[in-house]
């Protein structure tokens, strides 16, 4: 999707055909592009806007720690397909750029624990006509039951539909960009248009990589919810995937000078208050690899 067309859409400058194309794209959008677009709009905003969701400081193991998140609301306009006058639609962005977990309580009472460097966006119609949001990063959801309005989470071209349940979604924890949806309580349906519709039961995880069939497996809570307890846990994890998780948690970029290093396995448990440098040093010691800091946000491996 062209960013200029997105900009026109949110400013209410699209033709009926253009608006329809954008709305179809939003139903199956790549969240990375949408998140990048919304964050760009946030940077352009000059005045703060009051958000509806209640925001709670939330961090296991840090007494009275104040969690600060960036909360952005930007008003846009869009055209009715019938050609009627534009109707104001506000897109709300909840973006956690802090190093701590942030808890948001949505208007319907549903709770969203947003991991570091993760974001969700939704329209101001939330809890009126529907309960629908887009996720980039990782979040843990505890959804208030409402049979009349299912709760929908879009991640790339996947849609997770629930009535009331507890589940976790991660979109950037794996080196191959795969998405993991893990169900703890209740029941969810995960679908991709014209491809599949899988129903998950408690204890099941759906792993999806674009272009491949989804895989259903069982999971250990400690493997999936380590971040919510202030831990980073690797259990025979490939180094490439371990580094992908560290990139997500610390908001950085870690480059492997030799791609074959990514297949090496790592096991261990780390505290979230440990510095990235210390974790990388420990991981490197296991396989005789050194990590060199290139700049403030980039690290690169160097085989010894």
UniProtKB/TrEMBL annotation:
Domain (FecR protein) ranges: 97-188
InterPro entries attached to this UniProt entry: FecR, FecR_C, Ferrdict_sens_TM
Superkingdom as given in the UniProt entry: Bacteria
Protein FecR C-terminal domain location: 231-298
UniProt keywords, alphabetically: Membrane, Transmembrane, Transmembrane helix
TM segment ranges: 58-78
Molecular function in Gene Ontology: sigma factor antagonist activity
PANTHER family, sorted: PERIPLASMIC SIGNAL SENSOR AND SIGMA FACTOR ACTIVATOR FECR-RELATED, PROTEIN FECR
Record's protein name: DUF4974 domain-containing protein
């Amino acid at each position: 999707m062209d960013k200029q067309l997105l900009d026109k859409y949110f400013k209410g400058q699209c033709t009926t055909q253009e608006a329809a194309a954008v709305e179809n794209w939003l139903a199956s959008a790549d969240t990375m592009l949408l998140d990048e677009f919304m964050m760009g709009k946030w940077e352009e905003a000059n005045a703060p806007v009051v958000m509806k969701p209640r925001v709670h400081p939330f961090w296991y193991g840090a007494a009275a720690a104040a969690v600060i998140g960036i909360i952005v609301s930007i008003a846009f306009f869009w055209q009715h397909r019938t050609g009627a006058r534009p109707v104001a639609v506000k897109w709300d962005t909840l973006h956690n750029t802090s190093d701590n977990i942030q808890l948001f309580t949505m208007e319907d009472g549903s709770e969203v624990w947003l991991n570091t460097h993760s974001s969700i966006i939704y329209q101001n119609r939330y809890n009126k006509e529907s309960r629908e949001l887009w996720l980039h990063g990782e979040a843990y959801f505890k959804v208030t039951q409402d049979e009349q309005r299912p709760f929908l989470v879009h991640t790339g071209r996947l849609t997770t539909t629930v009535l009331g349940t507890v589940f976790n979604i991660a979109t950037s924890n794996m080196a191959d960009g795969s998405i993991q949806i893990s169900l703890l309580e209740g029941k969810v349906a995960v679908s991709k248009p014209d491809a599949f519709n899988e129903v998950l039961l408690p204890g099941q995880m759906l792993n999806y990589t674009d272009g491949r069939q989804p895989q259903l497996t069982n999971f250990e809570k400690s493997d999936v919810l380590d971040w919510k307890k202030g831990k980073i846990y690797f259990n025979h994890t490939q180094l490439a995937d371990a580094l992908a998780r560290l990139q997500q948690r610390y908001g950085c970029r870690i480059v492997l000078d030799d791609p074959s290093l990514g297949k090496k396995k790592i096991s261990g448990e780390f505290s979230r208050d440990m510095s990235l440098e210390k974790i990388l040093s420990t991981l490197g010691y296991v396989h005789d690899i050194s990590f060199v800091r290139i700049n403030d946000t980039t690290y690169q491996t160097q085989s010894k």
